[in-house]
């Protein structure tokens, strides 16, 4: 390999984060959400690392579940969007997947499956997010009408819109609306994502679905959440050129950064084609030689330029951390007007994922 651009995946952080989040909900079972290639960390990598602590996994679509099966992961997989087409019901059965049913069309597809080839299902309730799920007013009738499709593994699930925000009362109102119908139906429940697991104890039910927190993402607007989580990805690259420019010279496309004094500019081998956000503004932090340096000029497709005037001895080949232990991904996300979830999931396939086991 020539270019030193890599996403280092920290197995110890993944294990620590999952176990810590699971430990604050000892009466629940917890599953790792590994959709979108495990939020960019590599679904097969992550499932292999977590398979002894996460007894099930969750993905968004059946293709993601089948990719886990092809890699030899045997734990049950919950498919959070359920079937997009009727044929996926039988695929789910063949691959030991649990389909989340969020609308009556899906239940009819399942009903049309041969009785001995129906996968286990969960039922999703729309408790206020208004994205997927049966209406609160319909779910009891649906459960009665399709009782023959339920099994001992059926769970009633819902999803929160604002669980990271400890000051937002909407989560409590979603919870109480959901609890009313779930109590009436009497099946096990799954409510909490990782922010809810941390912030809303009442949401820790039979199954918690742990996503971003496992990867070291932000789970709470509160400062002290009582659980330590660490970044599971370090995105790093290296310097491929260093030059000195005079005051008044502009750098990069559109010359959006202009040197106010003679400046040393380093060019780094990562760009928006690798998933480093083009929207990152001038002054987005990176780490070089143990010091913070800052983006100077627009992000190009394959390169960025950083101002390293204040750092001695910067040379070609020096490592640059784009995010990780030293540069919080949330800080970079804020500089690009987005969230850590998006940055993680957008690291492109051009960037090799290197798993480190300590
Ligand atoms: C239905 C569902 N459950 C759980 C999760 C995991 O959420 P988080 O990554 O916030 O922990 C997601 C993620 O978007 C989801 O869509």
Automatic annotation (TrEMBL):
Point out residues bearing the modification N6-(pyridoxal phosphate)lysine: 35
User: Is this entry keyworded Isomerase?
Assistant: yes
Q: Which GO terms describe its cellular component?
A: cytosol
- EC number from the UniProt entry: 5.1.1.1
Q: Which GO terms describe its molecular function?
A: alanine racemase activity; pyridoxal phosphate binding
Q: Give the required cofactors.
A: pyridoxal 5'-phosphate
Q: Where in the sequence is the active site?
A: 35 (proton acceptor), 253 (proton acceptor)
> Where would I find the Alanine racemase C-terminal domain in this sequence?
232-356
Into which EC class is this enzyme placed? isomerase
Q: Where does substrate bind?
A: 131, 301
Supply the alphabetized keyword list: Isomerase, Pyridoxal phosphate
Gene3D superfamilies, alphabetized: Alanine racemase (3.20.20.10), Lyase, Ornithine Decarboxylase, Chain A, domain 1 (2.40.37.10)
The pathway it acts in is:
Amino-acid biosynthesis; D-alanine biosynthesis; D-alanine from L-alanine: step 1/1
Catalytic reaction annotation: L-alanine = D-alanine
Q: Please name the HAMAP family in this protein's record.
A: Ala_racemase
NCBIfam families assigned:
alr
- PANTHER family, per this entry? ALANINE RACEMASE, ALANINE RACEMASE, CATABOLIC-RELATED
Q: Which family does it belong to?
A: Belongs to the alanine racemase family.
Q: What is this protein called?
A: Alanine racemase
Species of origin: Alteromonas mediterranea
């Amino acid at each position: 390999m020539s270019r030193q651009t890599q996403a280092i995946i920290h197995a110890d952080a993944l294990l620590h984060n999952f176990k810590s989040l699971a430990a604050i909900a000892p009466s629940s079972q917890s599953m790792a959400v590994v959709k979108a290639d495990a939020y960019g960390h590599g679904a097969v990598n992550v499932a292999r690392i977590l398979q002894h602590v996460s007894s099930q996994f969750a993905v968004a679509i059946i293709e993601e579940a089948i990719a886990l099966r092809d890699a030899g992961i045997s734990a049950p997989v919950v498919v959070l969007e359920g079937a997009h087409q009727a044929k996926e019901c039988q695929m789910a059965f063949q691959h030991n997947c649990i389909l989340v049913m969020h609308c009556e069309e899906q239940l009819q597809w399942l009903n049309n499956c041969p009785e001995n080839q129906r996968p286990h299902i969960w039922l999703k309730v729309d408790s206020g997010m208004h994205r997927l799920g049966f209406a609160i007013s319909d779910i009891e009738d649906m459960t009665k009408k399709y009782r023959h499709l339920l099994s001992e593994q059926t769970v009633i699930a819902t999803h929160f819109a604002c669980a990271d925000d400890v000051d937002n009362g909407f989560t409590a109102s979603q919870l109480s609306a959901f609890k009313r119908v779930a109590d009436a139906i009497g099946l096990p429940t799954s409510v909490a994502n990782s922010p809810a697991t941390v912030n809303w104890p009442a949401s820790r039910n039979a199954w918690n679905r742990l996503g971003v927190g496992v990867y070291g993402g932000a789970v709470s607007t509160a400062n002290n959440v009582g659980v330590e989580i660490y970044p599971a990805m370090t995105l790093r690259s290296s310097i491929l050129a260093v030059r000195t420019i005079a005051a008044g010279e502009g750098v990069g496309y559109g010359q959006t950064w202009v040197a106010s004094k003679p400046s040393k500019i380093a060019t780094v081998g990562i760009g928006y084609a690798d998933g480093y956000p083009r929207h990152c503004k001038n002054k987005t932090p990176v780490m070089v030689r143990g010091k913070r340096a800052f983006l100077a000029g627009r992000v190009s497709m394959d390169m960025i330029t950083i101002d390293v005037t204040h750092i001695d001895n910067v040379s070609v080949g020096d490592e640059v951390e784009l995010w990780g232990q030293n540069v919080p991904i949330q800080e970079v996300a804020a500089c690009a007007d987005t969230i850590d979830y998006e940055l993680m999931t957008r690291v492109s396939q051009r960037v090799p994922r290197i798993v480190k086991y300590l």
